[in-house]
Amino acid sequence: MRYVFTIIFCVIASWAVQAQDTLRIRVRANIKKDMIQLRWAVNSPIAWKQSNRYGFRVERYTVVRNNVVLPVPEKVVLTPQPLKPQPLNNWQTLATANNYAAVIAQALYGEEFQLSDADSKGVSRLIALAQELEQRYLVSMYAADLCYPAALLAGWGLDDKSVKPDERYLYRVISAIPEKTLKVEMGSAYVSLNEYTRLPQPQELTAIFGDKSVLLAWNYGLLSDLYNSYYIEKSNDGKVFKRITDIPLTNMNAKDNVNVQRMFYTDSLSNNTSTVYYRLVGVTAFSEEGPPSEVIKGQGRNRLMYVPHINRAVPDATGKLEVEWEFDERGNSLLKGFELQRADNAKGPFKPVVKNIAADKRRITYDSLQASNYFVITAVPIEGEPVESFPVLIQPSDTVPPAIPTGLKGVVDSLGVVRLSWTANKEKDILGYRIYRAQTAGEELIPLNDVAVRTNSFTDTVEVRNLNSNIYYAVTALDGRYNQSDKSQTVTLEKPELIPPSTPVITNYKATAKGIVLTWVTGGEENIGLLKLFRQERGSTESTLLHSFSDVTVTQYIDSTVQSNAYYKYTLAVVTKRGLSSAPSPAVTIQAAVTAVRKGEFTSFTARFNRKNKRVDLLWKHDIQNLKQLEIYRRELDKTPSLWKVVKGFETQVYDDSAQPEVQYEYLIRAVLENGKSGATAKAILKR
C-alpha cells in the first residue's frame, strides 16, 4: 500500500543538514499529572536513517528526592531493548485513522524513489538518493510533531508512568548506532512531576479587517517552547466555533538563530455586514491542545471605489490657497464628506487642517500656509477606510529672512576647542544657521560652514599658540527658501593664555636737565593690560618699580627723581590683562645730567622706632632752596611704595604712629620746588 500526501514544509538545500559538524539528539519533555512524556529527534537525515535501524536507549537517573540531592543518582534503564520503529503491520490501525501516521509509515517503509534509465547510474543517482532521504526525514519530523502516537510507534517517544512526586529526574536518550558507524551525541532532559502546569492560552491574537477579508496575527515566539502549531476557530454567533482548517497551522519560517515572533493568517469573509468571531487553539508536540485564546470579533469594511484627485492648488497674492479637486458624483452618497490634510513631506503623516467638507463640494480655501506644504484631499466614507488623493506640493513666495539670532556666547578651552551656543529661532520654516569667524578685531568675518547647522550650537577648533589673544564669532539664520538674516552681534572670546607677550624694547633715552627721558616700543598685542618700568641704582642689587602705566599706548616717560650725575639701570615689562608677564626688556644704563632739576640735597634722612611712644620718628636735614613742600612715600619691603604724607617745606620731622612693630618699612622723601618741579630725594630704612 502506498500513501500519497501533500505537506508544506521548509525546503532545505540538499546535503546542508548532513554537513553539520555535530550530530546530536534533541529531547523535549511533557509533564503530566501522573507521567512524563519524552519526544526526541536527530538533527540530520543520515542520523535519522541509521537511528531507525539501530534504535535509541533511554536511561533515567533519580537526582533529587524530597528536595535532597542524592549522593549517588539512581539509574534505571527504561528501554531494555533499543526503541525502533514498529513493523509496518502495527501501523495499519493508526495510519487508517490519522493521515500523519500514514505519512510517517510511508517515510519509513514506502517504496524507493525511482529514477529513469538514463539517470539510474552515476552521480545523478547519488544526488537523487540523498534528496529522497532528506524528504523522508523532513516529512516524518513534521508529521511526528502533529501526531504523538505515531511518534511512539516510530520509536521517537516514550511515556514514563513509573515516576513519583517529589523526585527530579535526568533523562538521557542515547543512540544505539555503533560509534564506528556514526557518532551521535546523546540528548537529555531534567524534569520533575512537581513542574506540572496547565497549558496557557495563546497570546495577543489580533485582527485587521478589510474588504471581505481579515488578517489574523498572534504572538508565536512567546509560547514557541510549548506550541508548535495552531488551529484557528471561527464563529458567526460567538458561541459555536468551527476550525477553518483541517491541518493545524505551523510556522515554516523558523530557522536557527532566527527568533520569529508572530504568525499570520488571512481569512476571507462572505460579506462586510456580519460580525465574525475568532479564537486560537495551540497544539503541542505531544498532540495536546491547550485552552482557546481570548475571542476577538469584527466586521469587514467596504472599500470606497472612487478616489479624489486635486486638479488645482494655487496660492493667491494674499497667501490664501484655493484648492479644487475631482470626485465621481456617484460616490457622493457613500461619503460623510471630505478633509483637506497637510504634511511637511510627501510621506506624511498627514493631519486634517480643514474638516467636515460637504460631500458635494469640490473647492475650498485655506489661509495658514507654511513655507513648504504637502496637501491631500481625503474622501471619508460612511463605512470603510478613507481614500486619499495623491499629494501636491505648495510653496508660497517667501522673501522675508528669519530674525537675527540672539544670545550668542561661547568658550575656548585649553586645547583650542570652541563651543558656541545661541537662542534658537522660533520660525517654523527655519532651515539652520551659518557660523562666521574672524581672527582679529575689525577683520572681515568669514563663513565656516556651507551646509546649514540644524541645531543652535556649534563646535570649532582654533590655534591657541598664535599671537592673537581673542577670536570673534557671529551667526546668521537661514529659512527653507535660503533667505538669510543679518549677522548677530559679534561675540569676542578670549583664548587661553599659553604664550607670554612679546618683550618690549627701550629704543631711546636721553639725560636732560628735567631728568632722564625714556622711549620704548611693545609687541602691540591686544591683551596687554599694564606696562611696568623698573629702575636700579648703582650699588643696589635690586630693581624697584618706578612706575606702572595702565595706559598701554604710552611710549615715553621722564624720570625726574634722578640725582645729578648718578647712574641708573632701566628695564621694562608688559603684563597681559590676565596677569601673564613678558620677560624684562634688555637693560639700559644711563648717567643723569650734571645739571639736575633739583637744587640742593638732603644731608640726612633717618627713621627710628620710638618704643616708648610706639611710633616711627622720621627726621631730615637739607640745603634745598625754593622748597614748596615735601612728599613722603612709604612701603613694606618687596612691595610698591605709595604716597604716605605731604608736609610743609619748613618742617624737619614727622611721626608715623600707624606703623606696625613687626613690619620692616622703607621711607622715601622727595622735595617739590616752588616751580612745581621735583627736587632731591632720599631714602631711609626703619631701624629698630
UniProtKB/TrEMBL annotation:
This is Fibronectin type III domain-containing protein. Keywords: Signal. Residues 1-19 form the signal peptide. Residues 500-595 form the Fibronectin type-III domain. It comes from the Bacteria. InterPro entries: FN3_dom (IPR003961), FN3_sf (IPR036116), Ig-like_fold (IPR013783). The lineage of its organism: Bacteria, Pseudomonadati, Bacteroidota, Cytophagia, Cytophagales. SUPFAM superfamilies: Fibronectin type III. The keyword Signal applies.
